[in-house]
Amino acid sequence: MYSLIFRLLFVPMDAERAHHLSFTALRILDSVPLLGRLVRFVCARSAVHPVEVLGLPFPNRIGLAAGFDKNGVGVRALSALGFGHIEVGTITAHAQPGNDRPRLFRLRDNLALLNRMGFNNDGARQASFNIAEQRERIAALPQRLRPIVGVNIGKTKVVDASDAVSDYAASTRALAPLADYLVINVSSPNTPGLRDLQSVSSLEPIIAAVRETAAEVVEQPRSQLGHVPLLVKIAPDLADDDVLEICDLAMRAGIDGLITTNTTIDRSVLTGTEEHFATDQAGGISGRPLAERSLEVLRLVKGRVGDALTVISVGGVADAKDARARVAAGADLVQVYSEMIYSGPFFPGRVIRGLESSRLLTRGTGGA
Ligand SMILES: Cc1cc2nc3c(=O)[nH]c(=O)nc-3n(C[C@H](O)[C@H](O)[C@H](O)COP(=O)(O)O)c2cc1C
Q: Where do the domains of the chain lie?
């Protein structure tokens, strides 16, 4: 049914317009009490498998990756699809329009997306109002269904790299009080110079400023850790040695976790004519072609950090088997995005139920 709707309605439509249409439809359905409950009943059936990570009670291990709900306007509606956490953002200190359209493309043969959105968002102040409103809405849900809200922050495009520290601190001041966990995004390929902030010398002062600011503005963190958990999201295109260096910095700086990975600028992960198309276009690739490197980076990170840091794996997860492989490789949580565009609103629930039943099976047969 969804693949028919996808082909007839969404494929002829610009990908970004299709995103807005489907997200708006979901939010409208969720706002009508009976319909909202019906969506939750159908999509999120048997999706509660509680797990404590980062000192927070996650309803399950599967979350929605950053970039879908950039302004934090649809947390409750998205949780009705079964997600145990929603990472909103990337949010920047100042509102910005992002890059010119078109800036989101479907690469259907590769089951991938190419995006160069460029952190289009309404800015930290507006996002703080939106998230506060969403928090009120999810507070009305039974505790076991309440999604965890991550807030992903990035650098405002017009702010010079030399002022990045105060820009991240400004976002933290506005958003940390509303975040269950915070993510420093230094890995999007669509803000010029952003990924250079992954160098240890640039990242260290950003981590310190975000941590100190969060401690100043949040008196009673929701996490049992006693502070707002702080994670850094990294790119899949880093050389292995640089990944290891970030792991060492993360442990030294006392951050709580890493998110691996953002989209890739590597076009060789694609095949056929879409590889040629993407070679001429700026932007990051997500979806199935990213899976291999994303898993590789997860293994690299886990090999270095062991259990010292929480690791959230994202990139090319297409079914419960993939999610299971990420958990088996040491991921505490798994996020999805692109596959939902191709597989539809039942996708998160399927992954959650499949992950849990495969875990039970493996446990039953004495496996890891
Ligand atoms: C349209 C689009 C927009 C995105 N925007 C963001 C963003 O604002 N911040 C961020 O950290 N990641 C962003 N991402 C990256 C995703 O969070 C995720 O890391 C990536 O898509 C890999 O996961 P997937 O293969 O399951 O899509 C975006 C991805 C897509 C497809």
A: 2-364
| pTM higher than the cut 0.70 | yes
Atom 11, ligand 1: residue with shortest CA distance = 66
DSSP state string for 109-149: GGTEEEE-----B--HHHHHHHHHHHHHHHHTS-GGGPPEE
Q: What is the pLDDT along the chain (368 residues), one digit of tens a residue?
A: 777 777 777 777 889 999 999 999 999 999 998 999 999 999 999 889 999 999 999 999 999 999 999 999 999 999 999 999 999 999 999 999 999 999 999 999 999 999 999 999 999 999 999 999 999 999 999 999 999 999 999 999 999 898 999 999 999 999 999 999 999 998 888 888 888 877 778 899 999 999 999 999 999 999 999 999 999 999 999 999 999 999 999 999 889 999 999 999 999 999 999 998 999 999 999 999 999 999 999 999 999 999 999 999 999 999 999 999 999 999 999 999 999 999 999 999 999 999 988 665 555 443 33
Residues with a catalytic annotation lie at 188
Nearest residue (CA) to ligand 1, atom 3 = 67
Token pair 């390929």 is at which residue? 189
Distance CA 87, CA 195 (A): 20
CATH code of domain 2-364: 3.20.20.70
